[in-house]
Amino acid sequence: MPRVVHRIMKGRTGRVRHRKKLSRKDHYSTTDDTVYVNLLKWITKNGFHGCSLSPAYFHDTGRGLKARKSIKPGDVIVSVPERLLITTTTALNSYLGPLIKSARPRLSPVQVLSTFLIAERSRGILSFWHPYIDVLPSEYNLPLYFTAKEVEMLPEHMKTAAEKQRHEIQTLFKSMELFLKRVEENLHISSGVFTYEAFRWAWCSVNTRCVYMLQAKNSELSADEDHYALVPFLDLLNHSADAQITAGYNAEKNCYEITSWNNYSKYDQVFICYGPHDNTKLMLEYGFVLPNNAHDVVLFNLDDVRAVLSVPHSEKNWQGKLKILKDHNLTSDLSCSIDGLSWSLITALKIVAMNYTELKKYKRSFSSMILQENELSAVVSGIAVCMIKKAMTSLEHTEAAYKRLGQSSGSRNQSMVLELIKQQKEILHINLEMLGTGTVT
Q: Is the CB of residue 124 less than 8 Å from the CB of residue 130?
């Protein structure tokens, strides 16, 4: 998913958590690894100049970019020339172009970029892109890299999303195996270069590091919207929900630019914002979670509601309520956050709590139902409390299991999952307090 948007404003209103300031002034050490030195030499040689940022290692976020001087709102913090951007045009104009154009079915932009990265990585130092590829992680912290046991033990909604993602990537790879074999044969690339493991790495590199840059429609690719670009150096910037930026391609200067609307002092870590994502989304798409994430939510589904009510799926009254919820698009965003229960969850619970007479009346006119969002009946509150307590128990069991797993084989994956669980438990506690007072938003 492209991670730089044109402008990110501040997040949720209402209940606000205490969050760290954007700066990380006291917690960095300069990164002088050879790979970063080579990256800077390479981009400078190819037209990159005048940047006010430099690579650094920060104890709380890992590698990132620090300010070499103070930065004021409206300052351009990075400007990368077009020749250093990797897009589908880059791949189509390369030695891979004829093979990509002849592929059937047509390849998607992500498949093209993934193929290009694998092929260029296999060329080693002979590749023009070697200094950039050399700084890319050899593996990622996404659930795609989790062990089967780690996935199996994830919180239920996260597990479902992780399994779906894994299946989609495996299917995507299988759909292009014949094409990749043709690439190996035609370009005399060693057999075994285009493996699933290599494709997983390349897909993660594109998914976690690309920026949004809409490309012209190309009939030689699939109908999928092409809005991906890999931008060397720029992708070292870390995420903060408080970062306010403008980002995009500058056609006059032929470069991709980011303008910051925050103040930074010299040596502060500089951030961009990938979007107002909850921790499940951040973990699934980018491989990290944020402590005190104001956009975090705990998700529910209708099966969670039905389980609390002990209603058989085939029960006629339940089927009628289910139809209403689906007809009015009330089956998504069944969640709670630090601001309380979502509107969709409140509405769904009110419908579920109706008796036969109320339901019959409601069916006649959807608009006749007046929702008092700050007032819930005892029945509706009771259902919500039971759902939240059940979710809390499930998270506690998962937390205990992950802690036991960590004692024998501790990993960053397990630490990340435990942080996600911690944040979700806090949200559930907040909502139990709200329901205790009869307030839901």
A: yes
Residue 56 token pair? 């650094």
Q: What is the 3-state secondary structure (H, E, C) of 221-280?
A: CCCCCCCEEECCCHHHCEECCCCCEEEEEECCCCEEEEEECCCECCCCEEEECCCCCCHH
**Do 299 and 280 meet the contact criterion of CB atoms below 8 Å apart?**
yes
The two tokens of residue 119 are 């092929």
How far, CA to CA in Å, does 44 sit from each of 79, 83, 92, 208?
12, 12, 25, 24
The answer to whether the CB of 36 falls within 8 A of the CB of 235 is no
Give the residue among 46, 244, 236, 206 at the shortest CA–CA distance from 113: 206
Can you read off the two tokens belonging to residue 45? 């040689």
H or E element in which residue 42 lies: helix 34-45
Beta-carbon count within 10 A of 369 CB: 13
CA–CA separation, 437 vs 133, rounded Å? Answer: 55
Q: At what angle do helices 279-286 and 412-436 cross, to 10 degrees?
A: 160
> Burial code of 99-116, b = ≥16 C-beta within 10 A, e = fewer?
bbeebeebbbbbbbbbbb
Q: Name the helix (H) or strand (E) containing 36.
A: helix 34-45
The residues, ordered by sequence, that sit 6+ positions from 48 with a Cβ below 8 Å of its Cβ are: 79, 80, 81, 84, 233
Length of the chain, in residues: 441
* Strand partners for 335: 299
Q: How many CB atoms lie within 10 A of CB 258?
A: 23
Q: Say what the pLDDT of residue 168 is.
A: 97
Q: Is the pTM higher than 0.85?
A: yes
Tokens found for residue 97: 């172009």
Q: Which residues contact 229 (CB under 8 A, 6 or more apart)?
A: 85, 86, 87, 210, 211, 212, 213, 256
Torsion, CA 397, CA 399, CA 404, CA 409, rounded to 10: 140
Q: Name the token pair of 354.
A: 């109706």
In sequence order, the 6+-apart residues with CB closer than 8 A to the CB of 136 are 205, 209
List per-block mean pLDDT (blocks of 10 residues) for the chain, which spans 441 residues.
Answer: 48 38 56 88 94 91 94 97 98 98 96 98 97 96 94 93 97 96 92 95 97 95 97 96 95 96 97 95 95 94 87 73 86 94 90 77 55 65 94 96 77 90 97 79 55
Q: Which amino acid is at 287?
A: G
Residue 373 is predicted with a pLDDT of: 47
CA distance 163 to 260: 37
The whole-angstrom distance between residue 207's C-alpha and the CA centroid of its chain comes to: 9
